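Handout, section B. The chain below has 183 residues.
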Amino acid sequence: MDFERVLKTLLEEFEQKRVRCALMGGVALGVWGAPRATLDIDFLVHHDDLCVLHEAMHALGYDRVVFTENISQYRHEAPGLGFVDFVHAFRRISLEMLGRAVERPVFGGTRQVRVLLPEDVIGLKVQAMVNDPENRKAQDSADIEALMEARGAALDWDRVGEFYRLFSLEQEGRRLWERFSHA
């Protein structure tokens, strides 16, 4: 996927249409200093903007291939444009995540993108592991640890702990705090 081309195109369209969204997933890891290979771009998007989002994606030549209460996935047939995934923010906690998102530089500082805070990226990765442990645990655990290593003491460890408590994983959260909070 041509990430720079796709992200610039999407951001311009989302800004024009006023789609409330923020980068998450593998690309967001890179923004926060923990880059890893990924095949798609992931966003958290406000549920009230889903119709506008769909129109924007369709206008850009993307076809919606998955649509559920929680997610949408779009695919472009052209080489290099690939898949774009959206998690729908409609519950209090995901709407709060979207509200906390911040602008960060990408592409050598030539562009700004709204991105979820690292603590919220971790929270979504914890949720993904709990929801699909067989298929998600190894990659999401590695992503969490890479982000914790990159951000260390700069993380809001109280917020990170809230996510681990939410999913009854306090012991794991404590182990990670002991390992990474002073880095």
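Note. The chain has two domains: 3-115, 118-180. Compare this with the example in section A.
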